[in-house]
DNA sequence: GACGACAAACCGTCCGGACGGTATGTTTCG
DNA sequence: CGAAACATACCGTCCGGACGGTTTGTCGTC
């Protein structure tokens, strides 16, 4: 903190702003809307400034992946730590993080962008694979219903992402309850 | 000389070839790989010839959407007609069509491409919405478990699409059974 | 069924603009 | 000062799309 104090422009803040705008553009305009010009302009930085933080476009997308994956891991770990019951802990955390009960919180929009990014750039799918490999809980020694629940959550996620006509709030609540009931315990 | 491919004479064949190659490129190279040059070359037609069938790139993607949505509808209807039990018919057909039990059949690769296209081009999401609106079965008056099953199928679909480490064949079979068991009956 | 007229299918080239990336100047902090 | 953190200007390439021309099929007429 000492080195960032009183600095006119905090590079870390610029970097975060850049990543946030990248995610937003990815969601709203699609992958084709993510150009270096558009990102830099949206983030309130010049193109050169953007390229100072990320040497090229691939590095930008990689940076987005890193950031979002890390925040996703953190959110999962947080939820799991708060769950006293060991069994099905991961599945419940997965539900809580991916299936927003009361509206969309901060950061979740970004995770949607992550999906868009992975589908857009085949290169990132490779990174997804190694990420999954790094998470023992995801590897499928889990009980069948745990898998089922996680896949259902992913499906809801995709549906929300595509903006398809969604469930009513009442349905969402009931679905959440059902998902938790199906989780191992 | 009689060309191995369609030299001329069958515009419909050219059109289908173009759409097939568009879908393939979309899956393999991602949205950025779908250029008019790449599509025309892959389909064995000149750029001018491609633009004769589809006046611009948007029309090409729209054409792909139309084609795949239509084939998806047909596959669903086929499956539903073959199901003697009325209750849960739609859900079971949805499972059968979207969750390939024995390998990937023809056309299913294309449906994956459809997902990629919709995620890439925000414009197509609008079309998805109206498509869903046109299908009474999808509108969510369905029982909770029917929704759950469909979302789970979508999740598996997404997972396959991203090439994430998937289930073992045995797990897939068990999952299929479980999904059908959860379907309304 | 031969023939000419017309339309559809298709080709090859060119252009304007956008996009990723570079090279270099300018400011700000330690 | 010196280095990090930007900004400005610019370059080469690629992409979407327009355009004119060429070949192939179709159809009416006799």
Automatic annotation (TrEMBL), chains A, B:
Location of the HTH tetR-type domain: 12-72
Protein's UniProt name: TetR/AcrR family transcriptional regulator
Keyword DNA-binding in annotation: yes
Source species, domain of life: Bacteria
Keyword Transcription on entry: yes
DNA-binding region per Swiss-Prot/TrEMBL record: 35-54
UniProt xrefs under Gene3D superfamilies: Tetracycline Repressor, domain 2 (1.10.357.10)
Pfam families associated with the record: TetR_C_28, TetR_N
Keywords: DNA-binding, Transcription, Transcription regulation
């Amino acid at each position: 903190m000492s080195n960032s104090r009183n600095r006119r422009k905090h590079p870390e803040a610029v970097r975060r702003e850049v990543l946030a705008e990248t995610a937003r553009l990815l969601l709203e305009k699609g992958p084709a809307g993510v150009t270096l010009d558009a990102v830099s302009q949206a983030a309130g930085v010049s193109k050169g400034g953007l390229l100072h933080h990320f040497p090229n476009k691939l590095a930008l997308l990689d940076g987005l992946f890193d950031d979002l994956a890390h925040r996703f891991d953190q959110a999962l770990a947080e939820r799991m730590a708060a769950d006293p019951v060991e069994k099905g802990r991961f599945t419940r955390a997965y539900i809580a993080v991916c299936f927003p009960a009361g509206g969309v919180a901060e950061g979740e929009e970004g995770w949607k962008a992550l999906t868009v990014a992975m589908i857009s750039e085949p290169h990132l799918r490779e990174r997804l694979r190694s990420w999954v490999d790094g998470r023992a809980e995801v590897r499928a020694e889990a009980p069948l219903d745990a898998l089922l629940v996680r896949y259902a959550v992913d499906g809801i996620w995709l549906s929300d992402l595509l903006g398809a006509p969604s469930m009513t709030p009442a349905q969402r609540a009931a679905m959440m309850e059902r998902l938790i009931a199906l989780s191992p315990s």
